[in-house]
């Protein structure tokens, strides 16, 4: 449903990308796969929805409220603490050798 809403917001004729590269990882939205130097990366369904939303919006800033609305549903836009958790998980999985913030 979230993908459909995202498609409806696009101008006519604009097609969302189905593939992208993020930090040396190839993301294929159609096949629902993320492959990096160490092989395939396993993501939770929520992490996957966030990553697919970002790949579908190359070069654009996607507001946190929009991410929460698309991923968690209506009424969740104010719960930004969820974003910290989801993005920490994505960073850990996509950059396993890179230290996190504050380390």
Description of the structure:
A four-stranded antiparallel beta sheet has the order 1-2-3-4, covered by helices on one side. By secondary structure, it is of the alpha+beta class. It has helices spanning 2-9, 45-55, 64-72, 81-94, and strands at 19-22, 25-28, 33-36, 39-40. Helices cover 41% and strands 14% of the residues. The mean pLDDT is 79. It has one domain: Winged helix-like DNA-binding domain superfamily/Winged helix DNA-binding domain (Arc Repressor Mutant, subunit A, Orthogonal Bundle), CATH 1.10.10. The longest helix has 14 residues, at 81-94. The protein contains four helices and four strands; from the N terminus they run αββββααα.
Count of separate DSSP helical elements: 4
Task: Report the C-alpha radius of gyration, rounded.
Answer: 14 Å
Helix-strand makeup class: alpha+beta
Largest sheet: 4 strands, antiparallel
**CATH architecture designation:** Orthogonal Bundle
Q: What percentage of the residues does DSSP assign to strands (E)?
A: 5-15%
CATH superfamily annotation: Winged helix-like DNA-binding domain superfamily/Winged helix DNA-binding domain
How many structural domains can be distinguished in the coordinates? 1
The CATH topology turns out to be Arc Repressor Mutant, subunit A
Spatially, the strands of the biggest sheet line up as 1-2-3-4
What low-confidence regions span 5 or more consecutive residues with pLDDT below 50?
none
Question: What is the count of β-strands?
Answer: 4
Give the % helix.
Answer: 40-55%
Q: So what's the overall shape?
A: globular
Q: State the CATH class.
A: Mainly Alpha
Give helix and strand order, one letter per element, not per position: HEEEEHHH
N-to-C CA distance:
38 Å
Give the overall pLDDT as a whole number.
79
């Amino acid at each position: 449903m979230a993908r459909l809403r995202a498609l409806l917001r696009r101008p006519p004729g604009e097609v969302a990308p189905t593939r992208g590269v993020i930090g040396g990882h190839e993301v294929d939205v159609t096949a629902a796969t993320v492959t990096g130097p160490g092989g395939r990366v396993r993501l939770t369904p929520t992490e996957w929805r966030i990553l697919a939303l970002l790949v579908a919006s190359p070069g654009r800033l996607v507001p946190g409220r929009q991410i929460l609305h698309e991923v968690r549903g209506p009424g969740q836009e104010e719960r930004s603490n969820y974003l910290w958790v989801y993005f920490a998980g994505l960073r850990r999985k996509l950059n396993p050798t890179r230290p996190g913030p504050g380390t």
